[in-house]
Amino acid sequence: MIILISGLVLFIGVHSFRIFANPARERLIARFGENTWKGVYSLVSLASLVLIIWGYGLSRADPVILWNPPLWTRDVALLLTWIAFILFPAASIPRNHFKQYLGHPMYAGIKIWAFAHLISNGRLEDVVLFGVFLLWSILGFSAARKRDRRAGVIYPQGETKKTVVCIVAGTVVWALFVFVLHRWLIGVSPV
Hints:
Distance between the termini: 26 Å
Order of helices and strands: HHHHHHHHH
Number of helices: 9
Number of domains: 2
Largest sheet: none
Shape: globular
Strand content: under 5%
């Protein structure tokens, strides 16, 4: 569990600079340059993801069962993760309706993804992993929306074509993950 928690602390720590210490983040970028910042940020993110995946995998050797979720929660989780996977590309594709209404669809997608996994898994390790991501995404979404309001950010009108691209891209990646990658990466098939 210590490896999982270490990875989470590192991942959430580096991804929380903008939420809790944006002025310090801006100073670091100004001092070292944007490319150096992005390089270090990417390396730390990658290392933390490796620790999270490794630690989560190790936790299966000695699971701590808190509850046994009802079988129907797996179906709900599949639906919710599909929605989350649609929101992920919406964060990067400009002028889509999700971005217009949510402002920060990546945070919204992570909230939905984490919640889906919390309701369909009952191990302590699941609660730690997905609970941390749920809490972080709630705080991040709130901070980003406040930052937008202070700056007077108005997201451009969404275009149907770009929204459809988000839906198609998200659905394709979701299907690939559900039917192939989840078992390969996590060791468990969601279907």
